[in-house]
Design brief:
Length: 389
């Protein structure tokens, strides 16, 4: 009887071990473009940077921070575990959208900016459609005039970024992204004290940097399902596609085509499409790459809230130093964070605060004033800025 029991026990253990090692989760994987990722998705395969740095392991749940890091590292797509059909995602709700923010969107200044922004978007669509489908010429002066009309005479840098921040919930198409990058490049050029003509060229670099993506069908760019190998190659080649669309236009400065080709390259050689390093990337492409990733990281989507600029600055500080030109990178970080002095913010504990001072040694953690106290976030590490108000 004892022998029988021992045999049965061994048999049961064997069955359990076989069952354990043969059990596999029943799921399929789909390849999703990074800009279509949503917090809460489950990573299906380990994601590595070009230098074999593990960015996020298989099985990890995506967060806003993780998605921004993937953007920073020029990751194009990620394998995601398919969700059961019954698990439908709801669009992001904004419980922290404060009355002050709603009131801002109702001001005459914002209404005028919003109207001009939409008009510029439609005009850009028309021009690019003519170039792509009819081989028409660009009108640089018209593009610059329409872009400059988004700046009113009394608009400060702080006001412009405030406008862009409040435009996030309107649209996040490639065209809107191009205009955002153009405006950021325009301001960036002024921070660098470039001559006006150079600022104009840089602005056009930003405006046309993603033109290659505009020639890709929406069915691929906005595809939430699995990408085919051919679709993935099309996406990966959009910088080269943009270069081909721009390079033979004598009315454009050659640096505009180069920026389209090189804006996804990184100084450490981890970018694409060629993987070249700092000495082969043009200055304006280096500048556009910073404006491009900043706008992508702070952009809001239907299923994903925008990260606050201070969270983005933290990620850039931690992970971007080797990827971007030091001079341009540090200039941008210091200037962008100083743009938010005197801004109202929401802290991670739900408290409203006012930014009063930037800590030069810890840019993402300024000194803020609440209704009852002054808090140095570089010392109070349990709190951070959650959102702009």
């Amino acid at each position: 009887m004892v022998i029988y029991s021992q045999k049965m026990s061994k048999l049961m253990i064997g069955v359990l071990l076989i069952s354990f090692f043969n059990t596999k989760e029943e799921y399929s994987l789909k390849q999703v473009l990074v800009h279509n990722l949503v917090p809460g998705m489950t990573v299906g395969k380990d994601v590595y940077a070009e230098n074999d740095l593990l960015l996020t392991p298989a099985g990890a749940k995506l967060t806003n921070h993780t998605i921004s890091s993937l953007l920073l590292h020029s990751i194009l797509s990620v394998y995601i575990k398919e969700e059961p059909v019954s698990e439908k995602r709801e669009p992001v709700k904004k419980p922290n959208m404060q009355k002050s923010s709603l009131a801002f969107t109702e001001t005459k200044e914002f209404q005028r900016f919003s109207k001009n922004f939409k008009n510029t978007t439609e005009s850009l669509k028309g021009q690019i459609n003519d170039v792509v489908t009819k081989n028409a010429s660009f009108s640089p002066d018209l593009l610059l005039t329409q872009t400059s009309e988004l700046f009113s005479q009394d608009m400060t840098t702080i006001c412009l970024f405030d406008m862009l921040h409040h435009m996030r919930h309107y649209d996040d198409s490639t065209y809107v992204h191009c205009i955002n990058v153009a405006l950021i490049c325009n301001v960036f050029g002024k921070w660098l004290e470039l001559p006006q003509k150079e600022i104009e060229v840089l602005t056009l670099c930003g405006l046309l940097h993603d033109i290659g993506k505009l020639d890709i069908p929406d069915s691929i760019v906005k595809k939430a399902g699995k990408l085919t190998p051919d679709e993935y190659k099309v996406i990966q080649r959009h910088p080269y596609k943009g270069y081909l669309l721009l390079k033979d236009h004598a009315e454009l400065d050659p640096r505009i085509a180069q920026a389209a080709l090189l804006h996804h390259e990184r100084c450490d050689g981890t970018g694409y499409p060629t993987g070249c390093s700092r000495n082969r990337i043009t200055d304006f492409a280096l500048i556009v790459s910073i404006a491009d990733v900043y706008d992508a990281m702070t952009s809001e989507r239907v299923y994903r809230e925008a990260l606050s600029p201070f969270k983005v600055i933290k990620i850039l500080q931690d992970e971007g130093v080797q990827k971007y030109d030091t001079h341009y990178f540090l200039t941008f970080l210091h200037q962008i964070v100083n743009s938010y002095v005197n801004s109202d913010v929401l802290l991670s504990d739900g408290t409203k605060a006012h930014v009063i001072y930037i800590n030069k040694m810890d840019l993402s953690r300024p000194v803020v004033k609440t209704a009852s106290s002054i808090i140095d976030l570089s010392k109070e590490r349990t709190l951070e800025i959650e959102a702009m108000l």
